[in-house]
Amino acid sequence: MKNNLFALLLTAVVFSVFCLGLSSCKRDKNKTQAKDKIAVVISTLNNPWFVVLAETAKERAIELGYEAVLFDSQNNPSKETEHFDNILSSDYKAILFNPTDANGSVVNVKAAKKAGIPVFCMDREINDAESSVSQILSDNFSGCVALGQYFVKKLDGKGNYVEILGIVGDNNTWNRSKGFHSVVDNYPQLKMLAQQTADFDQNKAMEVMESMMQAHSDIDAVFCGNDAMAMGAYQAILAAGKADRIMVFGFDGSQDVVNAIKEGKIEATAMQFPKTMARTAAEFADRYLKADRNFQKKVPVAVELVTADNVHKYGAFEKLE
Questions:
Q1: Which of 104, 94, 101, 39 is nearest to 70 (CA)?
Q2: Closest CA to 303 of 280, 273, 278, 261
């Protein structure tokens, strides 16, 4: 009887140890299966262009096996800093970053670098090439050289125009403007009557265009630093009954402007490729986390001119196959 009792107790002990071992293995397995986190920090989601950039970056990071979390800075540097503080204290492994300000965002990227978290900038750059691992950027200058050449052609090298700028603290604003002016300023009979910022915002651009038309009755064209502002300018021009007189030029490649070019409402835009930039940033982060440290500091992504002649080849922010 004692022997049987002892055997039962021994069996129970062995079974308990076995179960504990299985439980421990399961916990260890779950632990090893926990996915590394990548943060996607975007300047604003109040613009279709940035929504495409954000969602593509997130989707590609997930495809590569990471947990991806999206942060919207709402074009607010303070909000962006809050996001970085959260990210740096929450075990993220990399940041795919669309900055709010070329200078103001540097401090956040430096903080991430100090914490050992690599940052990959998308679309917008920061004025400190060493803080981020790589910056994947549209070739804004060259894109606006092509746009400027088409602008000159459409105006036959003469006339009056106005320019609506994007966010003053964003290098893209000035790279686009400089590319445009590197061409247009060579034509003395093309006169810029006014230049004003509308912060890449459609409603602000509509208000700016309204005030420009009130101040100047002889505007022949408007160059806008992005497509949202081009649509806002067009709305103001249409309301003023001048849609058949003032030509509108944009930059981005949004669906609204692609459609407007097809309908003859807007003359041209410069097509950016946010999906390419977003996927590249996610893939760079993946390579970095797998011990690759060989990255180009700035990676230019070509921009293509879209006009009535070739608009059938393009969709929203992409070239059709």
A1: 39
A2: 273
Q: How many CB atoms lie within 10 A of CB 47?
A: 20
3-state SS track over 172-229: HHHHHHHHHHHHHCCCCCEEEEEEEECCCCHHHHHHHHHHHHHHCCCCCEEEECCHHH
In DSSP terms, 153 is beta-bridged to none
236: helix, coil or strand?
helix
Check residue 21 and give its pLDDT: 52
Cα 193 from Cα 160, distance rounded (Å) = 6
3-state secondary structure 63-90: HCCCEEEEEECCCCHHHHHHHHHHHHCC
Q: How far apart are CA 300 and CA 320, in angstroms?
A: 21
| Surface-to-core class of residue 270, CB atoms within 10 Å of its CB (0-12 exposed, 13-18 middle, 19+ buried) | buried
Burial of 293 (0-12, 13-18, 19+ CB in 10 A): exposed
Give the model's pLDDT for residue 33.
66
Q: What is the DSSP letter of 45?
A: S
101: its two tokens: 């300000």
Question: CB neighbours (10 Å) of residue 112?
Answer: 23
pTM of the full structure: 0.84
pLDDT value at position 4?
Answer: 53
Which contacts (CB < 8 Å, 24+ apart) does range 186-190 have? 187/152, 187/157, 187/158, 189/157, 189/158, 189/159, 190/152, 190/155, 190/157, 190/158, 190/159, 190/160, 190/161
CA angle 298, 300, 303 (to 5 degrees): 160
Q: Which residues of the chain have pLDDT under 50?
A: 1-2, 5-10, 12-20, 22, 25-32
